[in-house]
Every structure is written in C-alpha cells, then in structure tokens.
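Subgroup meeting minutes
Present: P.N., E.W., G.H.
Scribe: E.W.

1. P.N. recapped why we're keeping a running log of single-chain structure predictions: easier to compare across weeks, and new members can see raw inputs and outputs side by side.
2. G.H. added today's entry (186 aa).
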Amino acid sequence: MLPGFHLGARSHPARLLVVVALVAAGCTFEQRPDRAAENDEDEDGVPVVSAEDSVQAVREAFLEAMEAGDLAGALSLVDRDAVVVDPFSETPRHEASLGEVFLEVLGAYGTEIRMSPTGSQVTVLGDHAVAVTDYELQWWGEEEWERAGSLVETLVLARGEEGWRIHHLHRSVPGSVGEERRGGPR
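Output recorded in log:
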C-alpha cells in the first residue's frame, strides 16, 4: 500500500482515481501473442503439424520414393489393400500385387517419364483426406526430355495408428498423351 493512501470505505475519490490511473498505466489491454501458435508448438514445446501438412508430407514422400526407385519406401506409405489406377501400369491392380503394379510404374520413372508437380490441394475430412496434384508430364524423346502434357493424381488417405496411409491412388493422363505412348486408349 502506498503511504498516505487508505482505500477504506471513507477514502477520498481522488485517491482512488490516482490508484486506478497508476494501475491502468502499467497495464496494456492488447491481446498477448500465443507463443505456441507462433512457433507451431503446443504448450509442452512439442511441434504441432496440421493434418493438411501431414498429408502433403506423405504425398511428397511417396513421389520421392517412386522417383528414387525405392519400392519399399513407396509401399510403406500405401495401405496393403489400396486401389491403384495408374496409366503406367499395364497390369490391373486386381490381377497383381501392389508391389508388382508399382514395379511396372517404377520401370517408367526416370527412363520414360518424368513428373513435375505444378499444384496441389489437400482437403481433410476427419480421419480421411483427399489430395489432388497436377503434374507437368515429360517423355524421354530422341535426345532430351520433351513436354508431353499433364497428369492428374488423386490420393485418398486414411489416418490410422501408423499415421496417414494412401488407400486409393488414381492417376490420369489426357487421352492423346497416353494413346500415343501406349498404342491406343485403355
């Protein structure tokens, strides 16, 4: 308590006003920043990653594994019962194992085709997510890579105990590109 200031029932209103002014001058009424949100950490300092970022990370890791020819890495991100539709696999998924389908696709990466992402959109719906990615597609020509069009990839992922896993993968290439390269529509 300040000397000479008594805030009892008979206090002088001017004294009360001075105390309130001193307290108010020391206070700021602006909202304090949420340090956890700024640093993407929870209150315990553990990094927080959004579901969208987690799905993007799985999508990117899958593409990197396929580009590197890492079959085990790619398969580790895909549910064992996944549905796969890929124009670079001639074997329907229901007639082959997931590994056999991906081996066919891997055979085309780096030697016949190259895909460069041009945009991606992720939508998370609880424990399920859809990621749609557009790619620029290139074929190996006579002596260099040639632009061949575009490819659209749709992934449906589910979140489980092991994290996000791909349950459905569908890639489509506009008709003329696939027809020229594969000898007609399929």
